[in-house]
C-alpha cells in the first residue's frame, strides 16, 4: 500500500495563548513519519512535546493528554466527537489547540 510509505502531512495550529509555548508560532506544517503508523492524537501529543514545544511543557501536556483548559479541534470538530486520544490522524488533517487558560 503506497500510503503507508509516505509521511502524513498535518497542519497544526496553536492559539488562545498556547502559541506562546511554541515560540509564538501559531501555525506549523508537520510531517509525521509513516513508519510510526497509525498516528493517534495520543502519539501526536508526545511528538509535539518532543519536537515543537519550546517551554513549560506542564502548561500544555499533563500525563498522556493535554492539560485541562486546552480545547482540541480536528478538522473543525471537537475532538470528543472523533475519539479524543485514540483518533487516527489522516493525511492533511487540521488540528487546532486552543488554550482557555488565562492568567489573572
Name some characteristics of this structure.
104 residues; mainly beta; 5-stranded mixed β-sheet; two-stranded antiparallel sheet; 7 strands; 30% strand; globular
Low-confidence stretches: none
Choose one word for the global shape. Answer: globular
Determine the fraction of residues in helical runs and give it as a percent range. 10-25%
Total E-strand runs: 7
> What structural class is derived from the secondary structure elements?
mainly beta
How do the helices and strands follow one another from N- to C-terminus? EEHEEEEE
What amount of the residues lies in strands? 25-35%
Q: How far apart, in Å, are the first and last alpha carbons?
A: 52 Å
Q: Quick check: average pLDDT?
A: 92
Main sheet record: 5 strands, mixed
Amino acid at each position: 500500500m503506497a500510503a503507508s510509505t509516505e509521511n502524513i502531512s498535518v497542519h497544526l495550529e496553536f492559539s488562545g495563548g498556547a502559541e506562546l509555548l511554541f515560540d509564538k508560532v501559531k501555525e506549523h506544517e508537520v510531517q509525521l513519519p509513516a513508519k510510526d503508523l497509525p498516528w493517534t492524537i495520543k502519539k501526536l501529543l508526545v511528538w509535539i512535546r518532543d519536537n515543537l514545544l519550546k517551554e513549560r511543557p506542564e502548561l500544555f501536556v499533563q500525563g498522556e493528554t493535554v492539560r485541562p483548559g486546552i480545547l482540541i479541534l480536528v478538522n473543525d470538530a471537537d475532538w470528543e466527537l472523533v475519539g479524543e486520544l485514540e483518533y487516527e490522524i489522516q493525511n492533511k488533517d487540521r488540528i487546532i489547540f486552543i488554550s482557555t487558560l488565562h492568567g489573572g
